[in-house]
Amino acid sequence: MQARDTSLFPAAVLDALADAADRPVFEHGDRLVTGREVLDLTARAAAGLRAEGIGPGDGVALALGIHHQAFATILAVYAVGARLMGLRPGLPDTHVQYLLGLDNAVVITDHSTGYRAGHVRALDMDALLATEPEPLRPAARPDDVARLIHTSGSTGVPKPVAQTYTAMTAEWAWSPHRWAPAIRDLAPRMDRFLLFETLASQVVFQYTAMTVVVGGIVVVADLVDPSGPETLPEALARSRATATAVTVPRLSSMITQQRTRPSDLSALQAILVSGSPLSHDRHHEAQVVLGPVVFHGYGQTEAGMIAMGTPADPPGTVGFPSDKVELEIRDPRGGLVPHGGEGELFVRTPNQSCGYWADPELTAEVYVDGWIRTRDLGRLDDDGRLRITGRARDVVIVDAAVHYIGPIERAIAEHPDIVEAYVVAVPDETTGEAVHAFVVAADGRDPDPDEVRALVIDRVGPACAPRRVTTIAAPPIGPSGKPDKLRLFQQALAEADLPRTPSETTAGG
Questions:
Q1: Which CATH superfamily does the domain covering 11-17+28-163 fall into?
Q2: pTM for the whole thing?
Q3: Which terminal residue of the chain, N or C, has fewer Cβ atoms less than 10 Å from its own Cβ?
Q4: Who contacts 331 (Cβ-Cβ below 8 Å, separation ≥6)?
Q5: CA 259 to CA 52: how far, in whole Å?
Q6: Boundaries of every domain in the chain
Q7: pLDDT (tens digit, 9 = 90+) per residue, 26-71?
């Protein structure tokens, strides 16, 4: 039987809340919530979970809104040593049922999400929080799985990744002694962190917890609809927030909103961008329009944070890999690529996950001799900064030749009338597959498809020239906040009047 270790996560966050007993750690409208209050709620929820017979080794799924009670409930699940899985808003019901079926989890719900558990055992968050509190007795065991973090499912079903309590304890967010230089630069800017995305997100939860650890305040914003009535820049201005976390599409919206209806962002010191690569041009535009505030993080659900670019790093890079991360760039045969060359990134991190839940075949493919295959392509600059150049499996196969989609998207984005490009592979009777490009035009312009094709031919060759170019206002976004390429693929099939069955190449990302 595994021994219990009271130093394991969530001990560091609980200690930070105890240190913040009399000061506000959450702000929601006129409501200020102290560290003592959050600790009390955590103790109540933990007592309620224990009364329901939930403890080490049990699965608990959460379908909760964005508020301090949800944060306390998350900490309570960890305090009793259970296995947590957050359900992001917007997940299709089929995906939710698939995830719950994998873990046979109890679901904790509140009234804000409208989630219905169906045949799964459900607990009400408010009832748990009304339980008489008991002293917090951390019950975590080192090798137990602490959480299942499901990948976006943007090109298929979500894939739950398992992370142990030992790995959770080694996370950088609540461990100042593990901070890379970029995080030490970020920490003083986290005085008022604007929270508007679900705490089911690995990244959002980490930045929320980090804010508590560094002595800041988490400011909750009700931004259910990003287009109104209050935009993100307006919420940042009203709350005098110093930091917030966004995806690349949300960053693009911020840039547009600031150009057309600028808000006072003088208090803003850090925009934490993650989820997908940020192009050089968009990165530069963000620095021009929003100021020197962009921190561009690169990581994976499987590995955690790998590198982070600061406002001092050149646009298009993700800064220096953390000194706590081992990184190798390998060629298709597994050999090391010479410095400066492009290849697939393999990483080892102190807090990496241990595999895919209930999927040994995929685990064997991605977890190789202690290393994680990121299936991202990248290279190191002469000064050691990391550039992400594409996805190893994000490909289009034309006449049996494999072409990476990343270089095609970058080539299209060079067109002066285009600010963003998204490519999917569609079936083609002649070549097997062909490129369909979706583009976001600059300032309402109408890119010439022939010019786009000519640009791609010049940069990456005729096989990669788009058969079709579709202008869109913005890419569809999946529950993770990333561009939803499955929906783009389905739109491409509809435009070509093809059957709506994803090819293996498209569905495998």
A1: ANL, N-terminal domain (3.40.50.12780)
A2: 0.85
A3: N
A4: 337, 343, 344
A5: 52
A6: 11-17+28-163, 176-391, 395-507
A7: 999 999 999 999 999 999 999 999 999 999 999 999 999 999 999 9
